[in-house]
Specification:
314 residues; Udp-n-acetylmuramoylalanyl-d-glutamate--2,6- Diaminopimelate Ligase, Chain: A, domain 1; 6-stranded mixed sheet; 32% helix; 2 domains
């Protein structure tokens, strides 16, 4: 089933949106698309391709054009705009709502919202909110931590030490987003957003201790609501005969939805400080994105040494 958002939820989550009329219809009206419509051609009477399922946004242009119409023509257009799937009307800049719009909206049980924001700003705000709320979501097993502003998803088998490592990272000043289950959705072609399910927000499970509330124990600065996922670090139990990447040139990538995320596998062994290792891995990844690759520097130094030795032998 496709995701939907009620107009009531929209009003509750977005500041600067006020209910002008139709408050009793907020819950029943559902938004199914992130696209916003500014009915320009429709005001001229062209409804062949009217996207009635979108939020109908009225700015200075639409309201000014409508004010030049006769009351009868305006009433006819407003009735046409009130489709059975139209979620709501939004009027920007606190512009006066035409009486014909209010009457038609009340007749068809469609709420009217107003905002002081300019039309372009409210359009961007609505689109950004709806793209996140309506996006396809996936629940992943792991721990999501913000390390120096970098979203790191720590994965691995149950009991490998993900939550304990996250606790150590929190004590080192980093921030928890989600433990155990991470809700992931795609924001755009290059960005994945991760957040905690509502029931698990700010909570961390430590075996032998139980559930702890990170925000209560470490303060509001120890948690974050959501973050972009930039790197996956997979914890694996160390095995003597298993080969692990030692130079950092065997990069793995994982595709989630349509976004490729780099992945690093780290062996777990008694005595290894995983928090410091993961912290260093995140910093090293950031350095790579800024143009410095320690592996390439090592290879360059090695090639120079080989060249020098070859020259001496000659």
């Amino acid at each position: 089933m496709a995701n939907t958002v009620s107009v009531k939820k929209l009003v509750a989550d977005i500041s600067n949106l006020e209910v002008y009329s139709g408050e009793q219809y907020l819950e029943e009206r559902q938004i199914t698309t992130e696209d916003i419509s500014r009915p320009g051609l429709e005001l001229t009477g062209y409804f062949d391709y009217y996207p009635e399922e979108r939020i109908q946004l009225f700015g200075m242009t639409e309201v000014s054009y409508g004010n030049k119409m006769s009351s009868k023509a305006r009433k006819k257009i407003m009735d046409e705009l009130c489709g059975p799937n139209t979620p709501c009307f939004v009027v920007s800049r606190y512009l006066a709502v035409p009486a014909e719009m209010k009457a038609a909206a009340e007749e068809h049980h469609i709420p009217i919202l107003r905002t002081k924001l300019p039309t372009t700003r409210v359009s961007a705000k609505l689109t950004d909110y709806l793209s996140g709320r309506l996006a396809q979501r996936k629940s992943l097993h792991g721990v999501l931590v913000d390390i120096y502003g970098l979203g790191v998803l720590i994965t691995g088998d149950s009991g490998v030490g993900k939550s304990e490592t996250a606790l150590d990272l929190i004590k080192r000043g980093h921030r928890l987003i989600a433990d155990d289950r991470v809700e992931v959705h795609q924001q755009d072609e290059q960005t994945l957003i991760g957040e905690a399910p509502r029931i698990l927000r700010h909570l961390l499970e430590i075996r032998g201790v139980g559930i702890i509330d990170v925000m209560n124990l470490f303060g509001a600065g120890a948690v974050r609501a959501k973050t972009d996922i930039s790197l996956i670090i997979h914890l694996e139990n160390w095995e003597k005969d298993k080969q692990f990447d030692r130079l950092g040139n065997g990069e793995q990538r994982v595709t989630i939805f349509d976004v490729e995320i780099p992945k690093i596998s780290i062996p777990v062994k008694v005595g290894r400080n995983l928090a410091i290792i993961i912290e260093a891995a995140a910093m090293n990844y950031r350095a790579k994105t800024m143009g410095y690759d320690a592996t390439k520097a090592f290879e360059r130094n090695l090639n120079e040494l080989i060249s020098e030795n070859s020259a001496e032998e000659k």
